[in-house]
Amino acid sequence: MRSPLMxxxxxxxxTTDLGSESNSSTxxxxxxxLGMDRQAMEAFFKSIxxxxxxxxxxxxxxxxxxxxxxxxxTNLSKALRENLKSVATVRTPKIVAEQxxxxxxxKWLLEVDxxxxxxxVFIPEKNRGTLCISSQVGCALDCSFCSTGKQGFNRNxxxxxxxxxxxxxxxxxxxxxxxxxxxxxxxxMGMGEPLLNVKHTFPAARILMDDFAYGLSKRRVTISTAGxxxxxxxxxxxxxxxxxxxxxxxxxxxRNILVPINEKYPLELLMPSLHRFxxxxxxxxxxxxxxxxIDHINDRIEHAHQLVELLGDLPCKVNLIPxxxxxxxxxxxxxxxxxxxxxxxxxxxxxxVTVRKTRGDDIDAACGQLAGKVKDRTKxxxxxxxxxxxxxxx
Length: 394
Ligand code: SAH
Description:
Elements: H1 9-21, E1 31-32, H2 38-47, H3 53-64, H4 78-87, E2 88-89, E3 94-100, E4 106-111, E5 117-124, E6 129-132, E7 136-138, H5 147-150, E8 153-156, H6 159-172, E9 185-188, H7 198-209, E10 221-225, H8 229-238, E11 242-246, H9 252-258, H10 267-278, E12 287-293, H11 301-311, E13 316-322, H12 336-348, E14 352-355, H13 382-393
Parallel strand pairs: 1-2, 6-9, 9-10, 10-11, 11-12, 12-13, 13-14
Antiparallel strand pairs: 3-4, 4-5, 5-6, 7-8
Cofactor: [4Fe-4S] cluster
Pfam families: Radical_SAM, RlmN_N
InterPro entries: Aldolase_TIM, Methyltransferase_A, RlmN_N, RNA_MTrfase_RlmN, rRNA_lsu_MTrfase_RlmN/Cfr, rSAM, rSAM_sf
């Protein structure tokens, strides 16, 4: 069941209380509507004496028409619009840069506060358009092959900052309702570890899937995780999204080096959690297994055999990702030969495998290259990660 913490209800109540206690000279803290899922929005309208159906109306204006000005919400009465202006707001972030790759990939740098910015990437393909969104400013996990981790960690993004990436991208791509929908898929594969920020990523995912907002199906919203086991176990009850696991190594020894959170949640805990995720789902339910191909590190034939064994009968699709370089890394991308040999072993072992095409690397928009602007507040030790885990998953 969803905990009350997962909604904006507390914020609403607090704001309403603030409002009733304040006199005319006290500024009222306004409630932000951009990041509210339907349940939170309905609670908000109830708290201001309105019918819950207003939630759907306002969500449509914000998410489907890209409207942030209450005056433009013409099916609301004038009185309600005035009331909303006094108690609520639709906060949106500033786009500080937009870069277009030769292959059509677009990267936006969004300022989320005066010290930090995050990156969001749109990847157009023939029959779909994928938006890759960030969930944190920086990342605390420090995976050794990932540029985001090298920037350090600053803070979790809030609901509105996560969903704002979709809001901004839809607007920038000019795909408001009358236009053809260009963003067909959303993946939480930008900066950060979404499952260390479930309080904000789950409501944002619910908004992505809500018919009054973006209406994406569960197959088209994917949370990617380095393996936060207790949070993997929360997904099914909270939001019915797809799951990708950043595996990258077939044994604990290697995975501890590449994905250090493996020390906390080793494969013997991680693998059963993936099976639990798929269990009881529809017949096509599976996990996407991501495996970055790094030259002479994790790309040997014996690693491929170990991977076949490890994955066993887990319903999954394996995605091999050629390593994308970034400044000051010693790692190199596996050769095409090595990648194809690796793929062949997996396929002979009965696995469904694709090799990811690198996109947007000329603008540093490829997997693992997102850096944003992060004012690091941590020493990025495992101790910090553990503290963070305790806070977020308790
Ligand atoms: N923290 C989450 C989401 C962010 S990473 C996770 O770990 O899944 C998104 C994907 O990009 C992951 O599969 C990650 O392992 C991969 N990635 C990171 N750095 C990379 C690099 N340098 N080259 C290729 N893929 C990379």
